[in-house]
UniProtKB/TrEMBL annotation:
<keyword id="KW-0812">Transmembrane</keyword>
<dbReference type="InterPro" id="IPR003599">
    <property type="entry name" value="Ig_sub"/>
</dbReference>
<dbReference type="GO" id="GO:0016477">
    <property type="term" value="P:cell migration"/>
</dbReference>
<dbReference type="InterPro" id="IPR042974">
    <property type="entry name" value="JAM-C"/>
</dbReference>
<dbReference type="GO" id="GO:0005178">
    <property type="term" value="F:integrin binding"/>
</dbReference>
<keyword id="KW-1133">Transmembrane helix</keyword>
<keyword id="KW-0393">Immunoglobulin domain</keyword>
<protein>
    <submittedName>
        <fullName>Junctional adhesion molecule C</fullName>
    </submittedName>
</protein>
<dbReference type="Pfam" id="PF13927">
    <property type="entry name" value="Ig_3"/>
</dbReference>
<dbReference type="GO" id="GO:0098632">
    <property type="term" value="F:cell-cell adhesion mediator activity"/>
</dbReference>
<dbReference type="GO" id="GO:0005886">
    <property type="term" value="C:plasma membrane"/>
</dbReference>
<keyword id="KW-0472">Membrane</keyword>
<keyword id="KW-1003">Cell membrane</keyword>
<feature type="domain" description="Ig-like">
    <location>
        <begin position="91"/>
        <end position="172"/>
    </location>
</feature>
<dbReference type="GO" id="GO:0044291">
    <property type="term" value="C:cell-cell contact zone"/>
</dbReference>
<dbReference type="InterPro" id="IPR007110">
    <property type="entry name" value="Ig-like_dom"/>
</dbReference>
<dbReference type="GO" id="GO:0042803">
    <property type="term" value="F:protein homodimerization activity"/>
</dbReference>
Length: 260
């Protein structure tokens, strides 16, 4: 009969809290280990295997073979599944610094080192948030939705009372870890400020349009004046002709005077 002890371990345990297999006196382990266990595993009589300083990579199935030539059943084996549990590291938390009333901010928390996969819990001002706010009189008016598997905390419509310091805790069977608290401020919607910004934008737009119109108008007038000047010179007789006509008239006057 094959018996087993300790089907799980905690990673990095200095007490070598790992797989120990107990069998009958007729059972034996192989005399060689795989490379990754060569300096971390010990064989102990009668047929015990001890793995030191377990890590997540040691999670696997292990086989113990029993050879008893003189027995009625000369060979037997057993498979043992080892699950090494790894404590979560500090999760990465994302909390917006400032939001406006009525917006829909989302707080995020993630951790990838723990095994089994971590579950997440959010805290506000060091007080644990219930997964469903409607189950608590204190958070009944909150509109958040918490996903303990993904670490998301999303508000449908944030309120002034939702302001505070938030942090997240990642937990699994091996332990837990948390991020540092981060503040989230909630501000009222500044309608006056928005109106002034819109008004300023409209005024700037009108100023640009008026400037463009003035530039185009000035260019049109200059062209018009230039064309009118050209028309005057085109319709006026040449100056040389005027002078010649005046000389002819003067000569005629002198001739008439001589006759008299």
């Amino acid at each position: 009969q094959l018996l087993t002890d300790f089907l799980f371990s905690v990673a990095g345990n200095s007490k070598a809290f790992a797989v120990i297999l107990r069998t009958t006196e007729k059972s034996v382990w192989a005399n060689e280990f795989e490379c990754d266990l060569e300096h971390r595993a010990l064989l102990r009589e009668p047929a015990n295997l001890l793995i030191l300083n377990t890590s997540r990579s040691d999670t696997a199935q292990y086989r113990c073979e029993v050879a008893a030539i003189d027995d009625q059943k000369p060979f037997d084996e057993i498979l043992i599944s080892l699950a090494v549990r790894v404590k979560p590291v500090m999760p990465r938390c994302s909390v917006p610094e400032a939001v406006t009333v009525g917006s829909s901010p989302e707080l995020r928390c993630i951790e990838n080192e723990g095994f089994p996969q971590s579950l997440y819990q959010w805290f506000k001002n060091s007080e644990e948030l219930p997964e469903d706010p409607k189950t608590s009189s204190k958070f009944y008016n909150s509109t958040y939705t918490m996903n303990t598997e993904t670490g998301s905390l999303k508000f449908r419509s944030v309120k002034k009372e939702d302001a505070g310091e938030y942090y997240c805790q990642a937990r699994n069977e091996a332990g837990w870890s948390k991020c540092s608290p981060q503040p989230m401020e909630v501000y009222d919607l500044d309608i006056v400020g928005i109106f002034l910004k819109v008004l300023g934008g409209v005024a700037a737009f009108i100023f640009v349009i008026v400037g463009i119109c003035q530039i185009q108008k000035s260019g049109y007038c200059s062209c018009k004046d230039h064309r009118e000047t050209k028309d005057i010179f085109a319709t006026s007789p040449p100056l040389s002709y005027k002078i010649k006509d005046e000389e002819t008239s003067a000569s005629a006057v002198k001739a008439l005077g001589a006759d008299f």
